[in-house]
Write a structure and sequence with these properties.
heterodimer, A: 316 residues, BirA Bifunctional Protein, domain 2, Enolase-like, domain 1, 2 domains, 8-stranded mixed β-sheet, B: 119 residues, alpha+beta, 6-stranded antiparallel β-sheet, 3-stranded antiparallel β-sheet, 3 helices
Chain lengths: 316, 119
Amino acid sequence: MINRLKVIEAEGFYPYKNQAIERYLLDTCEDGEMILYLWANDKTVFIGKNQNAFIECNLAALSRDGGFLARRFTGGGAVYHDKGNVNFTFIASKQDYDIANQFDIMMNAMRLLGFNASLSGRNDVLIEGKKFSGNAFYKSEDACLHHGTILINSDYAAFSEYLNVSKVKLNAKGVKSVASRVTNLSEYRSDITAQEVKESLKTSLKARYKDAAITTVTEEELPRPAIEALTRHFSDERYTRGDNVFYDVAFEYRYEWGVADVRLGFNGSVIEKAKIYSDTLDTESVELKEKLLTGTDILKSVDPRIQDIIEAYGAK
Amino acid sequence: MKLLFRESHEWAAIDGKIAKVGISDHAQKELGDLVFINLPEVGMTVSAGDVLCDVESVKAVSDLYAPVSGKVVKVNDELEGAPELINQDAMGSWICEIEVTDVPNDLMDEAAYNKFIKE
């Protein structure tokens, strides 16, 4: 039974730190607790756990505009975040976690603001038939998590520019996004603010658990090393780009200066994608090797400059 | 062969040293349609109760736990492009094979598990 509420608001808009805080809260959630975490990201394409970043997102356009690519540890499709969007996260232990109840708290918060929201399917909350909130879920044996977006005055049209329109036919693995009709709350009340939405969520949560003790936690109270380690995890390209989803093989390759981490994606015996992660400063040579690897048929004769990498793969 | 279940709804079909591991039909129904599976890695060593791998269904991303301790020696690659096979036949769709080093004593046989899920 829930007898303690913990409320925390993110102070910054850096997606990876915000994700780190969310994950930390999940990993440290105690029985009897309901955590509400409120956060927003600056210009981020936020893809689902098992999505292929290269298919979902025009990474070049996104990075050109200073946007972030982030990957959730929950499922579903790609969404766009900016400061005109508020994210809410409910975390509770398995026995207290109840999706219907959490949706109810969220929709009641919308009602308090004068919006008539309705649930659609498992993941979406609509206003007049258009989606303004997408939700996703994670379950482990200990704690469970339900998070969602609320579009307030987001420039979600920008999203379409970052959606990949690759003509290349990729028969890649991964969960595909589904397009839906989207709207901002500001379409229905032009003066609505993110702060109002956050306050309303808090009010609605407290109203649901009248007898529960409430603690408000600030970012500073969280252990810095843990948050920093998690921030590194969520910002690591290998995680955001999802090499485990996208590439078929990963292996280490020792060269004269150290160790590189090589990822290859195959179509038959032909390497379709190659990525080398190494801390060498000689990025030019790394890029050249990636270029040479791409398109190589490993069963045919191989350029001598990548011979050693192919051998390392063969020895794997 | 011995068929045992974990409270978190994984099964282990133990035959000598090797256990085939999957999830129960009840779990498959609870999860809903699977859209993705991250198979465990061959060679990884797990203790019973460790996170073995995870699945994404239309409802959520969920962790799966190792019912027995040991080393993952084989994974069912067939599931990789077709996780829906688990929805179609959960008891027939093994996820991986574990070379068993320990079987915890809190696992249930089929009768006890069927009783457990009715509770």
